[in-house]
Amino acid sequence: MRDQFSAPEINVNTFPYRRKWTRDELDGVYARFEKIRDVLTDAVGPTGQVVFIDPAVVAILALHAALAGTDVHDDQAFIESRIRPDATGMFANTREWRVKGEFGPEDPPTPQEVIEAKAEKVRREMREQVDPEVLAALSAKIAEEFLADTRANHARGKRIVQEGK
Hints:
two-stranded antiparallel ribbon; mainly alpha; 45% helix
């Protein structure tokens, strides 16, 4: 009997949608893919149990959903997640889901929230302390480096940088 999944047969050369969209369109698909993958990670069932779905299957489903036009709308969500602290070293980056608004100030923020808060603080300090011409030159240099990295990633066929890799 043939495998039910066709993924092993799909590669860069046989991908059915190869070269069907522009890079801008694909960037939108990949942005939605990442959000969908995050909301499918450590999904919980109706009684609160974690429903384990292999990360590779989550990625396949998230890409399919993104290609089909699915998106995550935080303003319409009834639940939200935070990354659980991993005291044992066995469950890194698992998510805890709760009804929206149930996380309190005592709950640790997600690593992304910490990074975004630090980035905002640095951005504010730079705008207040750095000469506008120097800030413009720095912004141009960062944009140039980002563009070079993006082009190199696209040339290698790499579009998404996963955390921890």
